[in-house]
């Protein structure tokens, strides 16, 4: 199916802002050779287009046709050999060699539709750029694939065939009549834009800015290219800015801090004639490759902050983004911002990671010789926040309890790194997508088994519990959770009381700050009645909750497997050796409901003795934490607010 021509007839675009959109179903033709599952698949652009049309957003935009790029424009950034490769790779005569050729490159696949898709993707970004530069449009969003920013001068790489953004950038600079002399490229894809960086390395007309996961060179694309000391060379020195994250999980607050303290001050100085965004959405919350957590609202803030430059002339070109929902919602939020320039409310509740400030300072120091504004001291107010965070984390790392959990701010990802995905070709040419997830084979088995996870603590509040499943941060929490690999919400929720004692102990946690947290005495006591909120989840998700409750990250094997599930009905509780440093490593069996076992996680009998003797402190919960429990009980319709407060109060004060 081809996309019908110009649909702007009859739908008047906004008087104030003309926002262009380009999408063409022919860009879905590029795929893995036999349609094997791959994160960079045709559904990515379809999901964006469907979202824009179903929400009626496209009607407010100017829709223009995709167009294949001409070779002479590609030649400004790619070698002739590279152009010939992409031009011919989908031809009949290449059919037998195609997979072998792809295997020569890093994370590349080809099929009979690749050439056409690649020419359309580059051509569409170029058309968008031309229309915005000419003033026919205020801004534009090019919904294209394959993406481009990893593609280098003479080789395709990382799902990218032609470097779409670089081709459009050179086109604008070379068409003198357009009057475009300075271009800012903002690459907010979660991966470093290695290809684009190299193409403008010595060019002061192009300010290339990339913020990406780097982890000291271990994140895709691995190596030093994405380091903050890579600032350009010759005339281009200072015109290449890399902001390399030290860890995953970065979200709105981290990105906004980088905008406010690096990108925006530099953009003001540079004063670009036009801005092109390498708009990958794989740093979006829930992305399986990115492991970061920008919300759609966060993306719209980042975009809005750029709209005050270059008279609002912005071209957004899609790069990565592999969670279809997140991708579509983020893209839609950006198009709406381009259309309306809505006022934004920035949340002051969440703070950047301490590592974010470290990175910001390092980047500012590296570039201050070129951009004197970066030599200014960071505002006092922020430095205070920095200090607070540093103190906060350092007090955690010097945990008084040798059995306390580690600070979890540098959690390893449970997601698949891009570098681990590749197409391997076997002898008869049949390609398979292989991933490095064989060590996680346990997941599919345990995903078929359901259990009740029973919570007596903050997880009684559903919005808080969902952070363990879907990731994120609920009210009162000091840091976000990364969520489970399977983000499906619980299929059922129910309440129950159990004959066990609820109490509060330990003095502080990474998630809640100072104050005690809830424990359930694993011992049955018929005098006691503790409210439990039961969530029906899979055994795979239960393991991910266990991991997060115990501030652990290694997911190579399940901690609570099928054998444990078989024996717990008789053993009643199982202390998990592999998690023994965590506070909640004892899984307790609380009976059955609808024939499924009810499991909770708490401290061990030995720890209860420690609490009783005073070796481990008993400590009342802080207000924010207690409020979360009260909220859970009230929203779950178990108790009135007064009753819930009294219930917590009693558990916190009654001697153990
Ligand atoms: Zn990416």
TrEMBL record:
InterPro entries with a match to the protein in the record: HDACs, His_deacetylse_dom, His_deacetylse_dom_sf, Ureohydrolase_dom_sf
Organism of derivation: Helianthus annuus
Coiled-coil region(s): none
Family membership noted in the UniProt record: Belongs to the histone deacetylase family. HD type 2 subfamily.
UniProt cofactor(s): Zn(2+)
Top EC class, one word: hydrolase
Catalyzed reaction equations: N(6)-acetyl-L-lysyl-[histone] + H2O = L-lysyl-[histone] + acetate
Enzyme Commission no: 3.5.1.98
Primary localization class, coarse: nucleus
Superkingdom of origin: Eukaryota
A GO molecular function held by the record: histone deacetylase activity
Name of the molecule in the record: histone deacetylase
Alphabetical UniProt keywords: Chromatin regulator, Hydrolase, Metal-binding, Nucleus, Repressor, Transcription, Transcription regulation, Zinc
Entry's localization field: Nucleus
Keyword Endoplasmic reticulum recorded: no
Originating gene: HDA05
One cellular-component annotation, GO: histone deacetylase complex
């Amino acid at each position: 199916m081809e996309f019908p021509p110009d649909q702007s007839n009859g739908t008047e675009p906004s008087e104030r802002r003309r926002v262009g959109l380009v999408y063409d179903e022919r860009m879905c033709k590029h795929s893995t050779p036999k349609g094997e599952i791959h994160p960079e698949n045709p559904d990515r652009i379809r999901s964006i287009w469907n979202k824009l049309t179903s929400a009626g957003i496209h009607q407010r935009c100017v829709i223009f046709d995709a167009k294949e790029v001409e070779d002479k424009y590609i030649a400004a950034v790619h070698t002739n050999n590279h152009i010939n490769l992409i031009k011919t790779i989908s031809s009949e005569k290449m059919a037998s060699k195609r997979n072998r050729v792809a295997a020569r490159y890093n994370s590349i696949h080809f099929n009979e539709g690749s050439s056409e898709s690649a020419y359309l993707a580059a051509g569409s970004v170029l058309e968008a750029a031309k229309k915005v530069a000419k003033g026919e449009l205020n801004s534009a969003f090019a919904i294209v694939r394959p993406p481009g920013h990893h593609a280098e001068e003479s080789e395709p790489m990382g799902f990218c065939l032609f470097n779409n953004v670089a081709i459009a950038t050179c086109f604008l600079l070379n068409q003198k009549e357009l009057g475009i002399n300075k271009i800012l490229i903002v690459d907010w894809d979660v991966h470093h834009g290695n290809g684009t960086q190299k193409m403008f390395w010595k060019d002061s007309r192009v300010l290339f800015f990339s913020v990406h996961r780097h982890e000291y060179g271990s994140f895709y694309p691995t190596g030093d290219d994405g380091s903050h000391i890579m600032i350009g060379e010759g005339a281009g020195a200072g015109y290449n800015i890399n902001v390399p994250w030290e860890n995953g999980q970065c979200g709105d607050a981290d990105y906004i801090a980088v905008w406010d303290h690096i990108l925006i001050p530099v953009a003001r100085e540079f004063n670009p004639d036009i801005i092109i965004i390498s708009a990958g959405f794989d740093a979006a919350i829930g992305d399986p490759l990115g492991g970061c957590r920008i919300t759609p609202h966060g993306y719209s803030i980042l975009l809005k902050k750029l709209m005050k430059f270059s008279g609002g002339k912005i071209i957004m070109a899609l790069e990565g983004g592999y969670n279809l929902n997140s991708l579509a919602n983020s893209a839609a939020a950006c198009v709406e911002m381009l259309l309306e320039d809505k006022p934004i409310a920035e949340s002051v509740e969440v703070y950047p990671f301490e590592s974010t400030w470290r990175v910001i300072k390092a980047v500012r120091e590296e570039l201050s010789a070129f951009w004197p504004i970066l030599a200014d001291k960071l505002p006092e107010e922020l430095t205070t926040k920095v200090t607070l965070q540093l103190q906060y984390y350092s007090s955690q790392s010097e945990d008084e309890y040798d059995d306390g959990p580690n600070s979890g701010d540098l959690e390893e990802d449970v997601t698949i790194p891009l570098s681990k995905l590749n197409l391997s070709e076997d002898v008869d040419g049949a390609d398979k997508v292989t991933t490095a997830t064989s060590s996680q084979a346990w997941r599919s088995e345990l995903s078929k088994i359901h259990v009740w996870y029973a919570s007596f603590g903050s997880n009684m509040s559903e919005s808080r519990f969902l952070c363990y499943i879907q990731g994120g941060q609920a009210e009162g929490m000091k840091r976000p959770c990364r969520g489970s690999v399977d983000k499906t919400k619980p299929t059922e929720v129910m309440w129950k009381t159990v004959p066990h004692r609820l109490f509060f102990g330990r003095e502080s946690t990474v998630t809640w700050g100072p104050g005690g947290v809830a424990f359930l005495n694993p011992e049955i006591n018929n005098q006691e009645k503790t409210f439990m909120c039961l969530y029906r989840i899979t055994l795979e998700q239960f393991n991910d909750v266990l991991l997060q409750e115990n501030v652990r990250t290694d997911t190579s094997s399940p901690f609570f497997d099928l054998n444990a599930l078989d024996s717990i009905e008789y053993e009643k509780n199982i202390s998990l050796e592999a998690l023994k440093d965590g506070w909640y490593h004892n899984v307790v069996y609380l009976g059955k409901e609808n024939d499924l076992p009810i499991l909770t996680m708490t401290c061990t009998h030995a720890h209860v003795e420690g609490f009783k003797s005073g070796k481990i402190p008993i400590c009342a919960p802080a207000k924010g934490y207690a409020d979360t429990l009260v909220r859970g009980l009230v929203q779950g319709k178990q108790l009135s607010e007064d009753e819930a407060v009294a219930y917590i109060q009693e558990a916190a004060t009654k001697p153990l």
